[in-house]
Amino acid sequence: MKNFLFYLFLSLTTFSLSQQSKIDSLTVEFRKAKIDTTKAKILAEIGIAAYYTNFDLATTYNDSLIEFSKGKTKKYEALGYRMQGTLQLISGDFNTSETSYKKSLAIFNEIDDKGYQGALLSNLATLYARQNEIERADSLYLQAIEILKDVKNEKQTINCYINLGINALNANKLEYATNYFLETLELADEQNNKNYQLYSYNQLGTTFLKRNMYREAEKNLVEAEKIGKEIEDYSGLMNTYNLFGVLYDEYKNHQDALDNFMLSKAYAELVGDKEQLSKALVNAGRQYKFLNQLDEAKSSFNRALELSKTLNDSSRITFINLNKANLLLEQKLIIKAEESILEANRFLPKIPDEDYHVTYKEIAKNYSNIGINDKAYRYLKMYAETSDSLYIKNDLKKIADISAKYELEKKEKELAQNEALVLKKELELKTKQRYLLIFAIAALVAFAILLLVLYNRIKRKFNAQKLKDAYQQGLNNYLTNKYNLKEKELLLWLQIVEGLSEKELAEHFFKSIDTIKNWRKSLYGKLKNEEEVFRQKNAIDLYHKENESYTTHKD
């Protein structure tokens, strides 16, 4: 698992470098472009590429797109506001996100662009769903579907149906949710849309987990992982590994659960999803606790808490504090545990989360273990009050036992206190602190060594990539000079070698199919001998032949 995480780290680093290279290339194109709409289009592409490397940088580029587009191109101004709304939504800034989305929708209404009108209604519905305004969200999704069907936008239509499924899932209408996701999976299969296949499999995995159908959940998550790796969808894989972690937790396989939560954390950090990062951290913290790695658990809970506070997520702040308090009680750090419980109570939502009752039970157990039975009794009562009747029945006897024990110990409390016991506990505490300090120093040294090893490996990888890029640039110059190619002809030849169809080439170069045909005719005319019949296979074979010839020449 450690090796896998290391190679994942390297692959993510390589991905970030490739996105930065794309940004640099697009920046050069922007400087060369003369037409305003072309410049705006390139700025939009830069913003999307920056999204995968640096969230703040993506925001800066997108703000530049909005300012540049004003008075020049309404479409790209509206697209800028739409991306701005999405960035704000991911950051948890719901009010400004709504304002940005509505600005974008108003412009698309003005220019009568039905496709983007439907897309913006879907964006707004997602925003309202994130704020638990489910009826308002569902109404907008249905409006969006009607518009999107008219313009035959199948992808956005599927997206709306998926979100209706998510709302059904959140409302605990699990059979409805299953049917929605099975339907969207079927539509995604018809269109061979890998992204929506991945998303549907993830949501089916979630639904089956909630229905306690673990085998079905695992089957769908295996399919999601396979597709996610194939298309390198890091957001999708982030969710897949989080769900695998939940599944292994149900199986009580805590090490595998932790490994998957850490993978989810790594992908969440890459794509800048703070909400999912917080979830992954608290889930990882719980697994660390089960594995008795208490320092790692505490660190994970603390970071999750910081993120949840930036997102103003009161439910998650409460849940993390309760888990942190439980951990501190296991370490017999009672005062610090009480501080976390107080903070949890300050953020407690009006409608408690269904996960709280299990944590209340764990807190009660730990209070009982350290002999504070009044609070054990209190939290066991809270557990019973927030549990379903099935849970309550199983624990009524425990409540009665702890209640009786509490009443007895209240009478004997003064006899249990003596100076010798206090001194003994102080000595134990000092010894523990000494060991913790030694452990922390050793961990710091080990971490420094690990960082040095990682730096050297990444440096070698980076140098190898530079050599590869230099070789490719040399080959490109060689081909351009030998066949007297224009830049667009060379780029077309390189994409033909990748096996792209006419339609895919048109989409790649943002040109019509007729333009691509003309480019290809010009290219083939320079590559072939007179009277030679020349097709895509000939172009591919010639490229590989020239590549081999160039390699031999370089050697």
Automatic annotation (TrEMBL):
Residues 399-433 form a coiled coil. Keywords: Coiled coil, Membrane, TPR repeat, Transmembrane, Transmembrane helix. It comes from the Bacteria. Pfam families: TPR_12. The chain crosses the membrane at residues 435-455. InterPro entries: Sig_transdc_resp-reg_C-effctor (IPR016032), TPR-like_helical_dom_sf (IPR011990), TPR_rpt (IPR019734), WH-like_DNA-bd_sf (IPR036388). TPR repeats lie at residues 278-311. PANTHER family: RAPSYN-RELATED. This is Tetratricopeptide repeat protein. It comes from Winogradskyella litorisediminis.
